[in-house]
Design a protein that fits this description.
Number of domains: 1
Radius of gyration: 20 Å
Structural class: mainly alpha
Number of helices: 11
Mean pLDDT: 80
Low-confidence stretches: 274-284
Order of helices and strands: HHHHHHHHHHH
Helix content: over 70%
Number of strands: 0
Shape: globular
Strand content: under 5%
Distance between the termini: 64 Å
Amino acid sequence: MNEMSVEHMVLYRFLFACLGMLPVVLMNRARFNRTEIRVLLISAFFGVPVQFLMQFHGLDRTTVSHACLMVGAMPVLLAAAAAIFAGERLDSIGWAALVASTVGAALIVLGANRGPAAHGQPTLVGDLMVVASLCTALSWILLSKKLMLTHSPPVVTAYTIMSGTVMLGAWILVPWLINPWIPNHSAPPPFLHLTVTAWTALAISGLACTATTTLLWNWGIHHVPASRAGVFLNIEPVLGSFLGVKLLGEHLGRYAWVGGALILGAAITLTTRAHEPQPPVFLE
């Protein structure tokens, strides 16, 4: 984002992701009925242009460490949505851990600045935009899980990414294309002046951080309940904030440290309980 706008960065990222998904589409010619197409397009709309543009505009207004810690709110949102819309359930300990995770996210928000963004400083607006992007991600997760009842995870992943990229491209490029006829402030996508480092970062984020990880995520939620899968999102707040401090020299206030501790504690509680052996069933 030092070399291009949020819109262009997200667009290039997903164009690289489409290259990674192209072999999946060519090897799996899926057929969706009319209802599935509608679900796919809604999922792609919320999962790609809405979620990522909102998330990275938020990241542009806050720090990497704060943005990663805000992801701690996602498991409780996902568990609540799964309980309401998918009929999944968590026990009292699970809900207590998820609530603790959300309290931790709230403490992180309280530690953000409420004024204009300063260099290397988190802001309330930026943190809340990241949280709002998590809410839109819920639609994508639950709709994808619904599509995977009849289609494989690679197929759902590939068609969602490609459909969402088409929407994203229209969102960003149409205002620029009609610029000669309608006055607006849309800039052309940067290309020639981007450094090799920027192109490398775009390729890695598109192929590895978007295409590969989305495929792995969809494969995972196809095999476990969505409410349980959300628990593993708590790995990102701890790891991401640690890397933000160590690699980018960012600073976490006392509220962020306390909130991060709550998030990590909730993650440990739920992940360790997830691997507990089930009691044997005795037939009478």
